[in-house]
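Limitations

Structures in this collection are predictions, not experimental determinations, and the ligand pose is part of the prediction. Treat each record accordingly. The example that follows, with NAP as the small molecule, is included so readers can see exactly what is and is not provided: the inputs are given verbatim, and the output is the predicted complex.
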Amino acid sequence: MIETTNQTKLFGIMGTPIEHTLSPKMHSYMAEESGVDMSYLAFDVAPEKLHTAMEGMKSVGACGFNITAPHKIEIMKELDEIKDDASNMNSVNTIVNRNGKWIGFNTDGDGFCSSLILEGCEIKGRNVLIIGAGGSARGVCYKLAEYGAASITITARTKEKIHIIAEMLKKYSSTEVYDVIDKTKKYDIIINSTPLGMHPNEDKNPCEFMDIINEGTVCCDLIYNPAKTLFLQEAEGKGAKIINGLGMLVMQGILAFELFNEVKLDHKKYYKELSCLLGDFKI
Ligand code: NAP
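Predicted complex:
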């Protein structure tokens, strides 16, 4: 257990609801292991209190914090600078105080892609199908393209949101983008980015085309609780490799910790150890 001192740096996470967040546990573990004198607390911040909470962070000299739902877009108004990735994704999940300047980053998409790599799933040259076109899908697609995916097909119930992501991908990458599923095509990676499969929708599988899944497919869910959604259970039954959202959660946390403290961590070591620490959610 790290003792706090008058030098202890303050970090945290803001969102609402926040009581189930695993971030304080992750960051406290990384701080202890890497010998950084910091505290990381969870703050339940209602949307109408976001500005005041940000002012409070500035006043008490916090060094940075993470942002989670529902503030990832709204917080951008409060910042001095937004890094390119986060700006293109239109979402910020990590804020760092650099000499009094508040800078926004996004580690979600990178967290997802680096967790896939650590799980032995190549992205470069792969055909990806993503279900859902919300905030997370946008960040994940942006990074999948940067990691060299050959094509990204997006399917979602609100077509307008597909087009917003498709336009972003066309602007920033040369990855092919499709908004219609081609059942004759081999999709190497299929991702669920909808909340279907999570409480209260544990009995729902958002993938209406399970017949295209086989032993060569990698099926991913951004959900980590339950560890095995109905989509992942059925995909596993077809012989697919399955990856849940715990790795994304862990990796976005590791990347945020590196930004907070301007350090480089051993990703493999911390990925393994943090996945074990939060093991109740591990497949
Ligand atoms: P979001 O912005 O609300 O987007 C959700 C997407 O799912 C939208 O395309 C939405 O469609 C669709 N959707 C919602 N309910 C649906 C339904 N009943 N039928 C069909 N489509 C439905 O949410 P998000 O922030 O992207 O989060 C998505 C998931 O990722 C959540 O389960 C979240 O817990 C998980 N997540 C995990 C991590 C991690 O670290 N592992 C990080 C962030 C998020 P409409 O636009 O039409 O509503």
